[in-house]
TrEMBL record:
The species this protein was found in: Streptomyces sodiiphilus
Positions of region (Disordered): 457-479
UniProt xrefs under PANTHER family: LACTATE UTILIZATION PROTEIN B
Keyword Cell wall biogenesis/degradation: no
Protein name as catalogued: LutB/LldF family L-lactate oxidation iron-sulfur protein
Membrane is among the record's keywords: no
Amino acid sequence: MSGASPRRAGHTYLGMPAFPRAAAEAVADGRLRANLRHATHTIRDKRAAAVAELPDWAQLRAAGAAVKDRTLRHLDHYLEQLESAVTAAGGRVHWAADAEEARRIVTDLVRATGETEVVKVKSMATQEIELNEALAEAGVRAYETDLAELIVQLGDDLPSHILVPAIHRNRGEIRDIFRDRMADWGRPAPGGLSDRPADLAEAARLHLREKFLNAKVAVSGANFMIAETGTLVVVESEGNGRMCLTLPETLISVVGIEKTVPTWQDLEIFLQLLPRSSTAERMNPYTSMWTGVSGDDGPRDFHLVLLDNGRTDALADTVGRQALRCIRCSACLNVCPVYERAGGHAYGSPYPGPIGAILTPQLRGVGSELDASLPYASTLCGACYEACPVAIDIPEVLVHLRRRVAEGGEATVRGTRTRIRPARGHAAERAAMRAARWTLDHPRALLAGQRLASRTRRLHPRRLPGPGRAWSASRELPRVPEESFRDWWQRTRGDGGTR
């Protein structure tokens, strides 16, 4: 989708259309497709080279998956350990069952400081709970400090990629956004600003420096939380995170409970997997770690908001829970043929691409038309699984969620039992599957059907009627051969082919 559609949604993903409609609009945008194709191919080619340098990449990948699975199995224990360690280090821990509670906690904490501005480190969790909008309603202005997030914010837009939120914008568009909107948020862009990357970065640096030096409150997420010491870890490439995490007097971190890892030794695995898989770097440029508060060094007050918001429900699903391994590297987006053409906005969630297609329906449920459509936003080609540094079998989870959407029934969403309505057309689909099962269980009936299909092949339509019309609207039916395989076998190899 182009930048216009998210603006109609009021700066949030609420009310966005189901994936097929949104994707159809995005695919028609030639400039968007060109931007995505250039960016994703560049990133994935660099990533492939960086990963190939490590002879033990497969072992690291398996180790990362094993650590995540072990942590998720005993998540209650590690979260209690984390809370004790953070508290002992001088921090305060707040538990948020859902987005509404998380927004209320953060808003109250900011209000208690008396400040009306906060600086932010890039955070998927705060996008998930729509924190910026909640703070704005409370009279608090949140300033994004990540370069790509800044572009999105100034452009009155929505992120479209996990790692590169402004991937749908080109340099000319970014220059125009800086020229037109920077003054509304603080220091204006320099006169005569060009679209050279160095000039755009310098304009952002000058604009943000004032925010860093004046801010008293910062809001962040975290890539990892180490249970044994209560240490939080943020990895980033620009240094803006380091400024937000050290200069303000109050730091509030909103982090999903699945970001927990047990020990520092476990962290070592992910600090090898994440940089190469996300930015194709051997080592992350800025890795910031903090444990509680420490005198005059860094913030005087530290608050950790542990966010559930559907994660416990996802954890109860023995197939779908592997989505909680995700370390937000975005490698799956960069190899996905669907994402490359549709872009991130079509997914209607802060989590786009293959990982969003399995994570969002588990966090939000599949009760809405949009969420029910996401498990189908894939070709099941498997490229995402091959790229995932923690071996999430995304195709397996997609098929699992498609079954949930098709069959309906009861499910737990954020602690509440709810009924999922079966997908439209499910009755016809179920009848067709039962007919196919009966036919395959009766070889003579199958043979008779194959021969009848071959003899009437010239009468077959090119498009399916009725419920099958939607499926065949974008694809032609395969042509029926002149004779079946069984008839060919009998004719060329003897009489064994009919039994």
